[in-house]
């Protein structure tokens, strides 16, 4: 036989369980999903920094570190297009986007070229050119709205990352650059691509190879993502 006290206790437990479950799903619904894309990987090394280290290693190290730094953020969920040294082609990256459906796509690269003089970081953001929007009028209106949001979010995030990278590398800012990214020519998604420094510049190369600088870059980007979604 259940007495009144026991019934009250059971009701109490059930109520708190319900509050707990609904609270959880509420929080889960609000999570922002970030897909970080460590460029290159596996057979595709990217630019070589020395005989052991290539762009693919630096982009992976920074991506993993950003993910770790943001692991405890309740409102963020971080995914990577690769978490090991494996070959990932453009179609795989696009598949990741379609599967994860992120709020933001962030690609990481190491720059090279323009002689030994060129140094510093660059941030690319897509402008979502009009030919990306095709179809009927209603669908077109929806798409242009989404396109505006993507454009605004991309530029805003690029600016936040620029500010935080500026603190790290003063006078090394080569500016924000408008360019459609390979993934955004047929997927409407807020995105930026960070070129973290020049492998062809001796000073940049030394920094990029340093674990401390890699951690600092990760920190600057993690901080940017955090403040963007605060
Ligand atoms: Zn690259």
Summarize this entry quickly:
The protein is an alpha/beta fold and 230 residues long.
Give the second-level CATH assignment, the architecture of the largest domain.
Answer: 3-Layer(aba) Sandwich
Strand percentage lies at 15-25%
Within the largest sheet, what's the order of strands? 2-1-3-6-4-5
Q: In percent, how helical is the residue content?
A: 40-55%
Rough outline = globular
| CATH H-level superfamily of the largest domain | Zn-dependent exopeptidases
The residue ranges in which pLDDT falls below 50 over 5 or more consecutive positions are 22-27
Distance between the termini: 52 Å
Bound molecules: zinc ion
Order of helices and strands: HEHEHEEHEEHH
From the helix content, strand content and strand pairing, which structural class follows?
A: alpha/beta
CATH class of the largest domain: Alpha Beta
In the CATH hierarchy, the third-tier topology of the largest domain is known as Aminopeptidase
Number of strands: 6
Largest beta-sheet details? 6 strands, mixed
Please work out how many helical segments DSSP would assign.
Answer: 6
Report the mean per-residue pLDDT as an integer. Answer: 88
Whole-number total of structural domains:
2
Radius of gyration from the alpha-carbon trace, in angstroms: 22 Å
List its salient traits.
single chain; binds zinc ion; alpha/beta; 230 residues; 17% strand; 6 strands; 2 domains
Describe what this molecule looks like in 3D.
The chain is built from six helices and six strands; from the N terminus they run αβαβαββαββαα. It has a six-stranded mixed β-sheet with strand order 2-1-3-6-4-5. The protein is α/β, with parallel strands linked by helices and 230 residues long. The radius of gyration is 22 Å and the shape is globular. Helix 2 crosses helix 6 and helix 4 (137-168) crosses helix 6 (211-228). Residues 22-27 have low confidence and may be disordered. The structure holds zinc ion (ZN).
């Amino acid at each position: 036989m259940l007495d009144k006290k026991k019934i009250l206790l059971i009701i109490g437990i059930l109520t708190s369980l319900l509050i707990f479950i609904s609270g959880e799903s509420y929080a889960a619904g609000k999570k922002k999903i970030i897909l970080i894309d460590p460029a290159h990987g596996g057979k595709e090394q990217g630019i070589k920094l020395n005989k052991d280290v290539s762009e693919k290693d630096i982009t992976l190290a920074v991506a993993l570190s950003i993910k770790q730094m943001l692991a405890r953020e309740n409102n963020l969920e971080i995914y990577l297009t690769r978490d090991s040294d494996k070959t990932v082609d453009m179609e795989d990256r696009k598949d990741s986007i379609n599967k994860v459906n992120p709020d933001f796509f962030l690609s990481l690269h190491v720059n090279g070229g323009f002689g030994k003089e060129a140094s510093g970081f660059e941030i690319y953001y897509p402008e979502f050119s009009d030919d990306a929007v095709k179809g009927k009028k209603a669908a077109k209106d929806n798409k242009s709205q989404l396109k505006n949001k993507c454009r605004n979010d991309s530029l805003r995030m690029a600016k936040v990352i620029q500010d935080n990278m500026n603190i790290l590398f003063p006078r090394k800012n080569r500016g924000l650059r408008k360019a459609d990214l390979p993934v955004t020519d047929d997927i409407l998604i807020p995105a930026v691509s960070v070129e973290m420094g020049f492998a062809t510049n001796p000073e940049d190369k030394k920094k990029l190879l340093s674990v401390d600088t890699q951690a600092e870059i990760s920190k600057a980007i993690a901080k940017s993502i955090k403040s963007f979604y605060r």
